[in-house]
Design goal:
Chain lengths: 421, 152
C-alpha cells in the first residue's frame, strides 16, 4: 500500500481553477438556444390558492408557465414526500413555489411573475411549535403537526432527582439560522445527446436529486442525469431539492436548455434553515457535583416541511446529555410542523443546539453548589469505557479531559479555579 | 443603449450597453469574464470585487456606464505570460481555497492592497480583505496566503 500521502499537505486538485476564476458554477454555464426560468413563490404563510396564468402566458417572450398541472407526480422530499413540486391547493409557508415561468430572458421572467394572478384564501396559521403540538391547533399537513418523537429512557429520573442536592430547571431557546453559502442556488437543465434529462447543479446529493427528479417526472432513473458543478458552499443547505425538479421539468417539456439563478433574497426564502429549538431541561447533581439525573424535552420547529427533521431531532436527543455520564436520563425530542420557513440540515445536524442548554445547566449547577465550572465538568465527562444515555460504550479514544485542560490553560482559567476552591 | 469605452485586463473595448446594466453584468455577459462572481447583489459579500483604476469596487454596485474611460482588472487579468500571480500561487500552496466562490474577489482585494502597500502588517491585511466574506471561514489561511504572497 502506498502511504506517501499520509502526513503530508497536498494541494487541492481544484485550487488552480478556483484562484484563476476558471472554476465553473452553474450560473457560469451558457448554452445555445438557452432560455431562463424563474419561480413564483407564496407571499403568505398559510392559504388555499387559485392560480391564473393566462395573462402571463400572453406576454411576448414568455415561452411557458409551469404549474402543478404540468407535473406528472407532484410530490418530493428527502424522507417524507411532503413537498409539492408546485403547490396545487394550499401554500404552507412564505416562499412555497407555485409556478415557474420560462422566458427568453430574465427581465421577461420578472415581468411575467407579476402577471400571474394568485388568489389567496388565507387560513389560520401556526408559528409556535408548542402551540402546533396541541390538538386544536391549525394543521399544516394531515391531522397532526407532530412529525417525529424520539425517546430515551435510562434508569429512574424521579429517584435521581430525589437524591439530588442541587437541581437546575430552565428553558432554552435557539433561533433558526441560514447557511448563507456564498453562491446562491443556480442550475441549468437540458436534454443530452442520449435523450436524458440532464441537470447541472451545485448539490450535496446528486443521487437523491436524480431519484427525486425521476420520481416527479415519472421517468426511470437511467433517463435522468445530474452533473455536479463546483459548489459555492453548502453547509447542509443544499441537501434538499430547490430548483432541480423545476428545471428538469422545463427541459423535458420544452426540449431546450433552461437556466435559473436565485437572487440572494430568493435563496434565503427558498432553502431550509437550522431548526430553532425550545429545550426544557432539568438536571440534578449531588453535593459534590456528580450528575444524578437529567430530563429534557426538546421541541424542534421544522417549519412547513419535514426535510431531515427526524435525523436532526434524533441527533439532538442522542446528544442531549452533552459529553457527561448521567445514570438516570429521560429525553423526549420532538419535531413539529409550523408555517415557518422549513428547517433541515445545517452543520451539526441537531447536535449544535443542545450544548446551549446542557452547558448552561452545568454552569448553573456549579454556581448553585459553589463548585468551579471546570471541576464540575471534569467530574462528569465521558472517559474511555463510559456508557452514554443511549447505551453506547465508548471504547475508543475519549480525550475530553485533555481538551478541557488545554482550553482552561489557554483562556487562563486557573486563577479563578483557585478562587472557586 | 449607450456606448462606452473602457479597458479591461489591458485590452481596450468599445461596447454598446443598456443603461440599466451593472458593471458586473458587463464583465460576465458582454465579455465572458466569469471569474467575477455574484453573491449578494448589494455590496455586502465582495464576491464581485474587481479593481477599477487601482481601487477595489463591488462590480454589482457600479453601473456599467460609470466605467466609461476606466481601467478594470478582473481575476482573468492576473496571469502574465501563462504564469499565475504570486498571490494566486500562495493561495494554492497555503490552502486558502475552499468552495472558491470568494476566492477571485479575495485575491483582487489582496492584490490592490499589495500594489499600494507591499509590506502590510497582519492588521492591514485583515482590513484590506474586510470587504470580502469567506463563508467557509477560512480567513486565517487567506491571511497567511497574503503574507506569503507579499514581497514575492
Amino acid at each position: 500500500m502506498n502511504l506517501d500521502i499520509v502526513g503530508r499537505n497536498i494541494l487541492r486538485i481544484d485550487a488552480l481553477s478556483k484562484v484563476t476564476g476558471k472554476a465553473l458554477y452553474p450560473e457560469d454555464i451558457f448554452m445555445d438556444n438557452m432560455v431562463y426560468g424563474k419561480t413564483l413563490r407564496s407571499k403568505v404563510p398559510h392559504a388555499y390558492i387559485r392560480i391564473d396564468t393566462g395573462k402571463a402566458e400572453k406576454i411576448d417572450g414568455v415561452i411557458k408557465v409551469l404549474t402543478h398541472k404540468d407535473v406528472p407526480n407532484n410530490e418530493h422530499g428527502v424522507i417524507f414526500k411532503d413537498h409539492e413540486v408546485f403547490c396545487s391547493e394550499k401554500v404552507r409557508r412564505i416562499g412555497d413555489p407555485i409556478a415557474f415561468v420560462v422566458a427568453k430572458n430574465k427581465k421577461i421572467c420578472e415581468l411575467a411573475l407579476k402577471e400571474i394572478l394568485i388568489e389567496y384564501e388565507e387560513i389560520e396559521e401556526v408559528f409556535c411549535p408548542i402551540k402546533a403540538m396541541k390538538e386544536d391547533s391549525p394543521k399544516v399537513h394531515g391531522d397532526t403537526n407532530i412529525v417525529y418523537h424520539y425517546k430515551i429512557r435510562k434508569g429512574d429520573v424521579e429517584e435521581g432527582f430525589k437524591n439530588s442536592y442541587a437541581i437546575a430547571e430552565n428553558i432554552y431557546r435557539t433561533h433558526m439560522v441560514d447557511h448563507a453559502f456564498l453562491q446562491p442556488e443556480a442550475g441549468i437543465s437540458f436534454i443530452d445527446e442520449e435523450g436524458r434529462v440532464t441537470v447541472m447543479v451545485a448539490t450535496q446529493y446528486p443521487h437523491y436529486d436524480r431519484e427525486e427528479i425521476a420520481s416527479a417526472l415519472e421517468l426511470s432513473e437511467e433517463k435522468v442525469r445530474i452533473i455536479n458543478t463546483n459548489i459555492g458552499g453548502a453547509f447542509g443547505g443544499r441537501e434538499d431539492i430547490s430548483l432541480q425538479i423545476h428545471l428538469a421539468l422545463a427541459a423535458k417539456v420544452l426540449n431546450r436548455p433552461i437556466k435559473a439563478i436565485y437572487s440572494r433574497e430568493e435563496s434565503f426564502i427558498a432553502h431550509a434553515k437550522r431548526h430553532s429549538m425550545i429545550m426544557k431541561y432539568k438536571t440534578g447533581a449531588d453535593r459534590d457535583g456528580k450528575l444524578l439525573a437529567m430530563e429534557a424535552e426538546i421541541v424542534g420547529d421544522t417549519g412547513a416541511y419535514a426535510s431531515w427533521a427526524t435525523n436532526v431531532l434524533r441527533k439532538s436527543g442522542v446528544h442531549a446529555t452533552g459529553p457527561y455520564f448521567i445514570p438516570n436520563v429521560k429525553v423526549d425530542s420532538i419535531a413539529v410542523y409550523t408555517n415557518n420557513p422549513f428547517a433541515g440540515a445545517m452543520r451539526g445536524f441537531g447536535a449544535t443546539q443542545v450544548p446551549i442548554a446542557h452547558e448552561q445547566q452545568m454552569d448553573i449547577l456549579a454556581e448553585k453548589l459553589g463548585i468551579d465550572p471546570i471541576a464540575i465538568r471534569m467530574k462528569n465527562i465521558f472517559k474511555q469505557g463510559s456508557i452514554t444515555a443511549t447505551g453506547q460504550v465508548l471504547t475508543d479514544s475519549v480525550p475530553l479531559d485533555r481538551c478541557i485542560e488545554k482550553v482552561a490553560e489557554k483562556i487562563d482559567f486557573s486563577l479563578e479555579r483557585e478562587e472557586a476552591y | 443603449m449607450v456606448e462606452i469605452k473602457l479597458k479591461v485586463n489591458g485590452k481596450s473595448y468599445i461596447l454598446e450597453i443598456e443603461e440599466d446594466m451593472r458593471l458586473l453584468d458587463l464583465l460576465r455577459e458582454k465579455l465572458g469574464l466569469l471569474g467575477v462572481k455574484e453573491g449578494c447583489s448589494e455590496g455586502e459579500c465582495g464576491a464581485c470585487t474587481v479593481i477599477m483604476d487601482g481601487k477595489v469596487v463591488n462590480s454589482c454596485l457600479v453601473m456599467a456606464f460609470q466605467a466609461e474611460g476606466s481601467s478594470i482588472t478582473t481575476i482573468e487579468g492576473l496571469e502574465k505570460e501563462g504564469e499565475i500571480h504570486p498571490i494566486q500561487q500562495a493561495f494554492i500552496e497555503v490552502g486558502a481555497v475552499q468552495c472558491g466562490y470568494c476566492t477571485p474577489g479575495m485575491i483582487l482585494s489582496a492584490k490592490a492592497l499589495l500594489d499600494k502597500n507591499p509590506n502590510p502588517t497582519e492588521e492591514e491585511i485583515r482590513e484590506g480583505i474586510s470587504g470580502n466574506l469567506c463563508r467557509c471561514t477560512g480567513y486565517n489561511k487567506i491571511i497567511q496566503a497574503v503574507e506569503k504572497g507579499k514581497g514575492v
